[in-house]
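We were asked to recover a plausible sequence for a given structure. The inputs and outputs are reproduced exactly as logged, with field labels preserved.

PROBLEM: sequence recovery
POSITIONS: 225
GIVEN STRUCTURE:
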């Protein structure tokens, strides 16, 4: 019986950094639980804004959240109004969390970074596929069009899209996938971006997975080869 590993976690410290960058031995479990709750909260609030990644950095007196998205204007808002509202919601949410006494942070800093090439980022494309499916477009057309978009990017060397569930409202769930180019999943220096998402449809949820291969990384200090 085979076991599959997450393409991101198995490449941590090889070509991937940690998404939460802090260390606190005494309050580790409380802060880890807080990180997970914050990510779930932001995923819900920022749905539809094509967020690629959420990085969390902590210091003794501050919490910094870095949001990487293809649409920074939607999050920042006019004159920074949107980012201030999001900061207020985060502050209220942290106070409600029951993660241990006096664990919450005093200063919250939000940083929004723009993703230049959305077709080369799996988290953005998997959300785009979910939106297309929720518009009731045929799933095969959605798979082909989005796979063609990914393969048209210069950075992308290979891509794979997989859907599972009651596709087109069928009574029996099934698994369908399409692939273009190469996907070397067992090569640690292969820069593979992976994401999964769910499309909410009247007849049930459709599971979506996307793999994007962006070439090999021989020097982890370089962003591009």
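RECOVERED SEQUENCE:
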């Amino acid at each position: 019986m085979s076991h599959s590993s997450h393409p991101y976690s198995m490449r941590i410290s090889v070509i991937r950094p940690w998404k939460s960058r802090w260390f606190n031995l005494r309050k580790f479990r409380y802060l880890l639980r807080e990180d997970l709750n914050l990510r779930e909260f932001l995923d819900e609030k920022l749905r539809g804004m094509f967020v690629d990644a959420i990085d969390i950095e902590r210091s003794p007196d501050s919490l910094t959240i870095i949001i990487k998205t293809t649409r920074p204007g939607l999050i920042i808002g006019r004159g920074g109004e949107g980012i201030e509202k999001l900061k207020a919601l985060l502050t209220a949410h942290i106070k409600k969390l029951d993660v241990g006494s006096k664990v919450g942070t005093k200063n919250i800093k939000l940083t929004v970074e723009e993703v230049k090439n959305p077709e080369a980022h799996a988290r953005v494309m998997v959300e785009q596929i979910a939106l297309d499916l929720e518009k009731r477009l045929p799933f095969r057309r959605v798979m082909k069009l989005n796979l063609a978009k990914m393969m048209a990017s210069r950075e992308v060397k290979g891509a794979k899209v997989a859907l599972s569930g009651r596709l087109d409202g069928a009574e029996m769930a099934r698994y369908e996938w399409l692939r273009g180019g190469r996907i070397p999943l067992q090569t640690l220096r292969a820069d593979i971006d992976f994401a999964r998402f769910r499309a909410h449809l009247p007849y049930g949820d459709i599971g979506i997975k996307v793999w994007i291969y962006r070439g090999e990384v021989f020097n982890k200090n370089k962003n591009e080869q």
